[in-house]
Structures are given as C-alpha cells and as structure tokens.
C-alpha cells in the first residue's frame, strides 16, 4: 500500500475498536464493579521490556506517549533503544517482551523462526538523504534515490553509514544494491552508531548520510545538514518509505516473556487514542510519525511474513 500523506481517522466506531489487538483490561472482568482498578488486575507493578529502534526513542516519542499506558495499567515500560538488528537479537535471546522496529525483511525472518507473534503495522515516516548545503555531488532534488547514491559514489564525496545492522542501515544497503554500487573506499565511513551520532559525524565531516525523517527533524536545529532527496511523505520516491511494525515475543519460545502485558501494549499503541497521540507528536512544529494501525483500508498481510501462503490457496 503506497505510503502517502493522509488525514488521521479521529473517530472510529466500536466495531473497528474490536479489531485492534488486546483490550482495555487484563486478567479482570469487564463488570463495572471492578472500577478503575479492574484494568490493572494481574499486571500492576510489573515492567514491560520494549526493545526498539533508536529513532522512536531519540525523537522523544516514547517519553511523550508512554505515561498514558503506564498510568492505565499501573506498570512501567523499560524502552531499550537499539538498532533494529540488535533489538531483534535481544528479543531472540529472551531479553524483551515486545519489539518495535522498522525493517520488514528482518521482522519477517524473526517471525518465520518463531520468535515473534501477533505483528501489527504501527506507523510510518520515511527516509531522506541529507548532506551539506554545498551539495558537492549535485543530488539536490533528484527523484531517484539510487541515482543520488551513484552520484555520491562517482563524486567521491564523503558518505557516513550507520553500519550497525539497524533498519536504516538495512535500507541503505538495499539502496546501494538497487543502485548497482558496492560502496567502499576512503569516501565511505561506517560508524557503528545510532542515527543521532551518525548525523553528528556526517555534520562534522560535511558528509552525506541516509536518515529517517523523524530523527533528522529532531536534530535539525543542532546540525548544518539539509534534506537533499526527499522521501514519499514529500512526494519523493516510494523506495524511501519507512514503515514501523510491532510484535510480541513468542512465550512458547521464551516462557519468561510477559505476553499478557505485551499484548496489552500492542492493543494500546494500535488503538485510536494512542495513534492520535502519535499523529499529534511534533518537534519544532513538524510531525515526525504518521499513524498506520487505524486505517479505512487495513492491510491484512501485515500479520504474516512476506512469502507465506495458505494451503487453502492451492485448492
């Protein structure tokens, strides 16, 4: 489904609410006699461990929206910010209850291997190619991300890569592959760091880099880099789309995973209220993330890895 700018659905009927994961109560009845404490039965005082990509943390989004969930259930959320690869690895090792990342190929592998269940589309923004305003490779305004990368490589202008197996790094490598270029040499530097630090390094070296839009906006006032190639949010190429997904760690693999609380979190963050909070979150007057879970046109393929097929389709 093409990613494009859209208006958030502010009001959703109760029928649509029933399609979101989880519910408003855990381990308690739905009767009014439970009062406000009913929703906290069985989980109050517990901690949910969320491993997540650095962009959701560094932008301040999670600090902004998590208090609502924590107050609702009387719990705390320990958000561990890592690159997508590291976040999924932590979950594979049983060190996470729920995972929020942005690399569908790695998410699919995680699910195929049985580590993750109940995946949901969550939100999106996009990737942008940023660099010095002087733009020595002459890529400003290009409509093709791959042509822009080839221009950078041909010019030998410095390029900073995260080099950390994150969602952004995975996207960058896919773009180089699509461009038919194997990056390397003195002009190409891998930092092995999160997005914020990679932007700082690129800024110090007047270099180009690939960034998610949210992290770039959150740091733009502190660096001199500018967006030179836009993503699809600003009518740039669709290849720069950046969707985020969320999934619970499979308690059948790791019995220490807090599945009940993970599903409560997934139900909450994909609900209209939390999706509205995501849509409303801004830095310096700019929206960083766009809600995806509540949609007039839901994508039911979000629940299974790409390439899976039902036996019924062969009948």
TrEMBL record:
Residues 49-272 form the PBP domain. Pfam families: PBP_like_2 (PF12849). InterPro entries: ABC-Tungstate_binding (IPR052738), PBP_domain (IPR024370). PROSITE patterns: PROKAR_LIPOPROTEIN (PS51257). PANTHER family: EXTRACELLULAR TUNGSTATE BINDING PROTEIN. This is Tungsten ABC transporter substrate-binding protein. It comes from Haloarcula mannanilytica.
